[in-house]
Amino acid sequence: MEYIRKLFQGNADGHGFDHSFRVWRNAMMIAEEEICDPQIVSLAALLHDADDYKLFSTENNANARRFLKEHCFPPETAERICAAVNSVSFSKNGGKRPETAEGRIVQDADRLDALGAVGIARTFAFGGGHGRPPEESIAHFHAKLLLLKDMMNTDKAREIAEERHAFMEAFLREWDRETGAAD
Ligand code: ADP
Ligand code: NI
């Protein structure tokens, strides 16, 4: 945990330690309902952004591998964790559905963190970090976030996504009401 916390120190764009921790929580919730290796899910979730190109310029999962090596995980386990991590990212796997259950679970867990109250907060934090006013970030809901519930791999994630989706729709309706967009 401390390693992950240090790695992401000073990052406020919604990708930091707190995101990794929430993705881990989501992933463990989904893993209970799926046939999978919970140890791989747990570590892949915690490490899923440890080598994200937006934050780090590491190659071949160097940050994740260093952590796993320091904690004496056998090479096969490290390999499975890195494979799961790499299958989660849209850019790294060309948009394909992850081949392992562990990859599919962590992908769902990561996507769930873009939805609901947390998703709303992250969207405005991201937009603000890029110098954009809130009005401009509203478009991101329609462009991406409202599509995510139909992209989930697992039943449990689909169920949680439905609730978080409804919450975002209520938020957008209230936004339209308060800004006069609904008039
Ligand atoms: P991750 O790598 O964790 O899957 P992303 O890098 O796609 O997440 O996005 C991080 C957060 O920033 C998400 O909550 C996402 O919805 C938000 N975000 C990404 N692009 C935009 C954008 N153009 N405007 C507002 N928010 C965005
Ligand atoms: Ni992530």
Defining traits:
183 residues; mainly alpha; 10 helices; globular; binds adenosine-5'-diphosphate; binds nickel (II) ion
Description of the molecule:
It is a single chain. By secondary structure, the protein is mainly α. The protein is built from 10 helices and no strands. It is globular, with a radius of gyration of 17 Å.
- Report the C-alpha radius of gyration, rounded: 17 Å
Total helical elements: 10
Q: Which small-molecule species are bound to the chains here?
A: adenosine-5'-diphosphate, nickel (II) ion
Average pLDDT number: 91
Total beta-strand segments: 0
Helix content, binned percent: 55-70%
Strand content: under 5%
The residue ranges in which pLDDT falls below 50 over 5 or more consecutive positions are: none
The description of the largest β-sheet is: none
